[in-house]
Amino acid sequence: MAHCGSPETSPKVQAPRPESIEPTQGSVDRSIKPVLFEIFGEIWTVQSRLGQGVSASVYRVSSGRATTTAAVKEFQADTHGGDYGYHKERSVLENIQGHKNIVTLYGVFTNHSCMGVATRCLLLELLDVSVSDLLVRGSSGTQVGRPQQGHSMWLVQHCAKDILMALAFLHREGYVHADLKPRNILWSADDEGFKLIDFGLSFKEGNQDVKYIQTDGYRAPEAELQNSLAQAGVEGDSSCTTAVDMWSLGIILLEMFSGIKLKDTVRSQEWKDNSTAIVDHIFASNSVVCPAIPVYHLRDLIKSMLLNDPKQRCTAETALLSPFFSIPFAPRIEDLVLLPTPVLRLLNLIDDSHLHNEEEYEDILEDMKEECQKYGSVVSLLIPKENPGKGQVFVEYANSSDSKEAQRLLTGRTFDGKFVVATFYPLSAYKRGYLYQTVQ
After folding, report:
1. Where do the record's region annotations for Disordered lie (predicted)?
2. Which domain holds residue 168?
3. Per-residue pLDDT, 6
């Protein structure tokens, strides 16, 4: 039986060290995966385990009576910090709900397994790919004679703005996230934006109840010092501030722009001696493939986040005023393949000759709608006769789950001897009738 928990306060205890909830695809489960959760009197089926850490596991679940999907974060009923993590994350999420760039908490419940074990659970909004996934899937590796290629300026700008807005809100509420990293930034297909997750190490500024904060590679210098003192059993003079989140975001944006994982770099003596020179070098190496002025604005923004003195670092609110955010960018095709939305765009299907014969055009519209409805509920379908978008098929589905299924099943199929290329497309742009001429 599951029930809604009663309000509880977070105990003043030492948290476990920062952990990653790692994806479990292709790995062996370390515990028995639950098959069902009973949530508020309704049975939800576990579709897959999305990730597992020391103190919690995350599952994708679907409702028994509808096609509703969500995520359940189940905390371990043992001594690995499960209770601490549950109370901490629940408390923070309940206090900061309502921002479009922060994961939504639907409710809390206790799960009673058939073994008689009770575990604390959070029912959360189900999100899509993480920035960590994008760094792996979207960046091309270094090749001879070719510079390292990071993500597009459109994607970097989109992520930076969304997370800065989340941090500005979080910091105004007096909270420090304290574990910002690529795995804790996820894309929402239905809201077409990036969202911040995992508040298990968060704390109120000035009331830090966590000794070990942030993950290696994204840890600010003052947090590194504090962690080292805590490990040595020495009490630090002061707690960390919201500035530690800005440092982490600076490293994340630098990784997205460069396509390089920087963990070893930021731990090096060279970085400690002159991080500014390394940032300059990274931008100089990539400026060949990017327009100069936006590159300089992004470089200066990242530098302002990576100042060693936390008091001199920019805040989230001042960072949002950077001229980098006033420059419009168009997404690359690779961006639209990686980021799911409810709109699907099909390329390499329609010849120009079909567009100017009205009877043929109407037949194609009907055929395409019939085909696309096999994969989900189609809201609208558009095949422009002129540029931009000439001959491309835009299919708006009722939700992103349907469009993702269609993209999976249509990609690589052949129609009239042609291989179909299926990408996603921003719903907001489609609704406005704005069809990007995407950069190849």
Report:
1. 1-27
2. 131-329
3. 34
